[in-house]
């Protein structure tokens, strides 16, 4: 019973964060013209974010593969990442956690489908409990269209002067709202990653 109540508390906190981000997004939309979301291929819409980072590929790669580095950036502004149990291999499944400013822990899994060293990572993202078991968002009071089984692909390309071009694609969003909220969260995570790499 206590576990079930705690999960509901965590999910309510997560939903509150989503709604807060939605409010920020609506305000931003009223002030600026948003970029049209990418819709390249397959059902639904795809979120594509490209970053050029002032660090070599080998260093950027660590921020996806090693617990010490994942914990530096996983979670939007104001969040920390107390747990990143990495099983970074094809067929493996990592368990990562972001902690809200109120102290609630939100777990996710990354189930790896393809890894090409220093070039390509592909995994499926889902919400989970602290043991890594997949959680049905609807059963926890989240909207029925909350994204599940989201395919993520990250590619890495070496540029001149020890720079890296990193492209993150999240596939199959069926709602502009979730796509844009995910974009906001991802951009904030990547800002933290970039800052950590610059000051390494």
Q: How would you concisely characterize the structure shown here?
A:
This protein has 200 residues and is α+β, with helices and mostly antiparallel strands.
Give the helix/strand layout:
Blueprint: H1 2-31, E1 45-53, H2 57-65, H3 67-70, E2 80-85, E3 93-99, E4 105-116, E5 120-128, E6 150-159, E7 163-173, H4 176-198
Antiparallel strand pairs: 1-7, 2-3, 3-4, 4-5, 5-6, 6-7
Description:
- The protein is an alpha+beta fold and 200 residues long.
- The protein has one domain (2-198): START domain (Alpha-D-Glucose-1,6-Bisphosphate, Chain A, domain 4, 2-Layer Sandwich), CATH 3.30.530.20.
- Helix content is 33%, strand content 32%.
- The protein is built from 4 helices and 7 strands.
- It has helices spanning 2-31, 57-65, 67-70, 176-198, and strands at 45-53, 80-85, 93-99, 105-116, 120-128, 150-159, 163-173.
- Strands 1-7-6-5-4-3-2 form a 7-stranded antiparallel sheet.
- Helix 1 (2-31) packs across helix 4.
- The chain is globular and about 50 Å long.
